Amino acid sequence: MSACVIPLSQPMPIADLPPAFRLRVVSAAGAGFPSPAQDWEETAIDLVALLRLDRAASFVFRVSGQSMIDAGIYDDDVVVVDRDATPVSGRIVIAVVDGGFVIRQLVWRDGKPVLEARNARMRYDAVIADESVEVWGVVRASVRNLQG
Amino acid sequence: MWAIADVSNFYCSSERVFDPSLRDKPLIVLSNGDGCAIARSEEAKALHIKMGAPMFKIRDIVREHGIQYRSSSYELYADMNRRFNQVLAEHSCTVEVYSIDESFFRLPVLPNGLGDVAAAHRVIAAVKRATGLPIRIGLGPTRTLSKVANALAKASEKVWKGVVDLHDIELRRRLFAQWPVEEVWGIARAMTERLRPLGVRTTADLAALPPEVARDVGTVMLERLVRELNGVECTDFEPEPPPSKATAVTRCFGEPVREVAALREAMVRRAVRAAEKIRAQDLAATRLIAFAHGSRFKPNAPSASRIARLSPATNDPRVIGGMAGRMADVMYETGGVYTKCGVMLEGLEPMTAHQADLFAVPDPRSPALLAAIDGLNGRFGRNTMRLASEGFGQKSYDTKRAFKSPSWTTRIDQVPIAR
User: Whole-model pTM?
Assistant: First the structure.
């Protein structure tokens, strides 16, 4: 293809150019302005990493029922559980009671570890955390779907 | 030094982590298709349930003793295996996954030349704490010795409390005299027969064999094994042959298959799964074998297989699935009742190294398409994207896993519930 020069004495609208001169956007020109953000780029926030879900001892449970609503844990919430954390007084734990999992707060009453529900409007029996009760893990975080 | 950890009754133990109601009951886990017991809790072993016992033969004992049973939940076992190895990796810079429930790793040797039994106990405690899985550990100057140590720890759990250290030559002498040679890692039954005329019955006899004699009786492998039993590490020691260059996907049908369309669809499903398996390892196959047969307990059961060459080598499900489907069409006998079908992919070679076919023109878009399929299925779950010839949804011929526990650790809709 040979180069072709149209002498122009004054500016001329693109639409009036002959078809061979029509402009077409092929791709972004390599010589554009560099992104002013490129030196400050960081990776997007990664909740898997923040919740440390990739740890060997991290497990996910789902909460069913109202037993912990005063502690801000509601029915259908998802909780992240550390199996390897030490259950100290005040922590919310997953425990095995009567062959099933319960979510309760571990507190010391008269020198004895007790598992208590957190719901002032309903009655839940406190369970003494003796040898027959296994504390399966310690709840580290909860996640709630607000879309209902 | 070398250490090997194995999870006791791995499948049963994994089930018990998430289902506490199973903890004090005899428990067995069934094979794919729910046919046989492939894992047994200690309580089930005490009731004389044998490894591989067919369910129909033990039904009465199961009922009588309230033995609990579960289908195998490989989703769970794979995830628990990952967690187990992750804890080992926190204690050792080298972890070699040996099988789904065993891994080699390294621990430092004490200044007195013995294994660090206390460190091994710390690993046992850490695995139990993080995963809930009970493990046992064997220690030794070589991998062979650690494997023997692990087997000893397993055989007398009460005596050793989960850790046996075979760094001490005196202890080796004492224990090896009692340990049958067929229990040694890498000694197959045929080898036991060849060793018997030489008077080799115990591990001590084998360790005392002069290396040259060992090479004569067996191969250089047996010579290395004898050296390893004496604490001399052979870096190139591979007690088992490297993984054969083949993969297979064979499954029993949940319900017998009578129609050619169902047989074809089932065959395509297995072929596509096999192709996915080799893609994950960046391998391509050069041979496809497809087979289908009926129950071997029934007279005149159909049985057929076909072989096809794949050229160029491929891992494309469209090629492999298409071919397997056509092979099923050819194999099908009218009136036949099929209980099992499967495919094998052989002659596996690295995707990059395979020999090009003179006449085949590879489609340059295929790698991107397959990567997209694998990406989608990896992210959104198996069968998110599939070939139309695989059919859709659960089919009556799908392998039965009627007693599978939920996928507690891999599916958000199946995680354990706390009340």
Answer: 0.76
Q: Is the confidence at residue A1, as pLDDT, over 50?
A: no
The partner residue sitting opposite A56, judged by closest CB among B21, B130, B419, is B130
User: Would you call A143 an interface residue with chain B, using a CB distance cutoff of 8 Å?
Assistant: no
Q: What ipTM was estimated for this complex?
A: 0.74
Find the mean pLDDT for residues B295-319: 86
Q: Would an 8 Å CB–CB cutoff place B379 in contact with chain A?
A: no
Residues 6+ away with beta carbon under 8 Å from B336: B258, B294, B301, B302
Which sequence spans correspond to the domains of chain B?
10-73, 77-229, 246-390
Strand partners, B283: B350
Is there a contact between B419 and A67 if contact means CB atoms under 8 Å apart? yes
What is the fold, at CATH topology level, of the domain defined by B246-390?
Dna Ligase; domain 1 (3.30.1490)
What pLDDT score was predicted for residue B118?
A: 95
Whether A83 and B130 lie within 8 Å, measured CB to CB: yes
For residues B135 and B154, what is the distance between their CA atoms, to the nearest angstrom?
Answer: 9
Gap between the Cα atoms of B270 and B277, Å rounded: 11
Going along chain A from its start, the domains and CATH numbers come out as 47-143 (2.10.109.10)
Contact B417 A101 (CB under 8 A): yes
- The chain-wide mean pLDDT, for chain B, equals 88
Smallest CA–CA distance from B417 into chain A, residue: A62
